[in-house]
Amino acid sequence: MKQEKNKELQEPKEPVLIIPQLIVGLGNPEPKYDQTRHNIGFAAIDVISHAWKISLTENRKFQAQFGEGMTLGSHRIRLLKPLTYMNRSGQAVQAVTSWYKLPPESVLVIYDDLDLPLGKTRLRLSGSAGGHNGMKSIISHLNSQNFPRLRIGIGKPKGAKEAAKEGDNSQTVSHVLGKFTATENQVMSQVLNFVVDCLEMSCKQGVEKAMNVCNSRNFEVSEC
Predict the structure, then answer these.
(1) What is each CA distance from 221 to 69, 203, 204, 216, in whole angstroms?
(2) String of b and e for 196-221 (b: at least 16 CB within 10 Å)?
């Protein structure tokens, strides 16, 4: 009996697959924020909903635009665009997770990242807010950092780092709340289609498997 027990303890456990059940895109709801860099999470959800044919409608209970349907691989999924403004995104996320009794690790959040170059994406299983106010709110409301997130690079304006050291963040704010250039939009169109592929793989094979693909691509900005 003792040998059998020791054998059970020594056998490696199969890794737990993290499969998203709720995909959240972060942004601000007013028209003036449409197509801005800070709203790339909203743009991602729009592309995903179109690809998977999941319509989004306003849900007052969730304080968000919400849709439910199937991925191309026939995995049930929910899509969410909080209408609470970025700093209170966690309210909408918590409302959905409480209603459907979803664990934090089943929530995948898509948002913009200044520290990633434009054309780059980064998928992770967990982590801190990294200074992003939308993520701070979600972490606070879910009381956990252990949920996957997909960061989409929006790049940093030249000289912003030096200006920030002197207490001037105006350049960074202007960049984040500004719109992509025509050239950047071409790149972001490719990035968003790639994001759909990454999320489809996350739902089929788990987030960890999708990380290998999602974190290895880089879409270059053309100088032409």
Answers:
(1) 34, 29, 30, 16
(2) bebbbbbbbebbbebbebbeeeebee
pLDDT (tens digit per residue) in 22-77: 999 999 999 999 999 999 999 999 999 999 999 999 999 999 999 999 999 889 99
pTM (whole model) above 0.70: yes
Beta bridge mates, 153: 113
Name the residues annotated as catalytic.
38
Neighbours of 168 (CB within 10 A): 13
User: What is the DSSP code string of 58-71?
Assistant: EETTTTEEEEEEE-
What is the total residue count of the chain? 224
At 132-142, the pLDDT tens digits run 999 999 999 99
| Domain ranges across the chain | 18-214
CATH class for domain 18-214?
alpha beta
